[in-house]
Amino acid sequence: MITFTLNGLEVAVEEGTTLLETARTYGIEIPTLCNDEALSPGSACRLCVVEVGAAPKAKLVASCDFKATEGLVVRTHSNRVMKVRKTLLEMYVATAPGSKTIQCLASKHHVTQVRMRPRNDTCILCGLCVRMCSEQMQGKAIDFVSRGEQRKITTAFAKKSDDCRLCGGCMYICPVCMARCQGPQAETTLCNACLNSAPPCNDKFSDVMCYMDPCVACEQK
Predict the structure, then answer these.
(1) Which of 50, 92, 173, 213 is least enclosed by beta carbons within 10 angstroms?
(2) Nearest 10 degrees: CA dihedral of 58, 42, 124, 144?
(3) Is-contact 37 64, C-beta < 8 A?
(4) How far is CA 120 from the centre of its chain?
(5) Cα angle 102-120-139, degrees, rounded to a multiple of 5
(6) Average confidence (pLDDT) over 33-51
């Protein structure tokens, strides 16, 4: 067993356990758009970022593929971490404002503005569909192609794939496929319909005060 510190609490996990798995085991929720327990880690969306190490040398890592080590010090909801997550969510809302999954996460993490120009894309390149097709459906009908701004997910040579079984697994797991409540013709980029009116405790402290979802104390204010 490996022992380390998670949000000030000494925890023990088996060797090879990731920080994301550890946090979930101890009831600490970490957001992610590219992770699924049935698939290999993707570490693409970076929303699962956590802070490891002690200040001033603490660094940010993706918890989905960062394995716990003996004596490690981890903070999952520090002020620094929360600012990065909000910025990333702002970027994802601008990329795919039609996604209910992304909009709900944005409200949950108190994203109240989008400073980027909306793109209205139908893909955030999280790779969930690629891994679902390959690992669960054994189809390997789709994959990433190109690089940089031209990077996208498609079939080989952008033609109908003989390996595709039309199972729908790619659409089922896609975080963008679930349309936002206002429909495809929503007037605003940001929804915020599910925004918690209570201010997050990170505005007053360097870490969140509890890890309940939702925080009972905040909900009563």
Answers:
(1) 213
(2) 130
(3) no
(4) 19
(5) 70
(6) 95
Q: Are 124 and 175 in contact (CB under 8 A)?
A: yes
**Could you tell me the two tokens for 42?**
């993707």
Q: How confident is the model at residue 121 (pLDDT cuts 50, 70, 90)?
A: very high
Q: What is the DSSP letter of 116?
A: S
Distance CA 165, CA 141 (A): 9
The predicted structure's pLDDT at residue 214:
73
Are β-strands 9-13 and 2-6 bridged in parallel, bridged antiparallel, or unpaired? antiparallel
* The CATH number of domain 2-117+189-208, selected from 3.30.1120.10, 3.10.20.740, 3.10.20.120, 2.60.300.12: 3.10.20.740
What size, in residues, is the chain?
221
φ, ψ of residue 202 to 5 degrees: the values are -65, -20
pLDDT of residue 199: 67
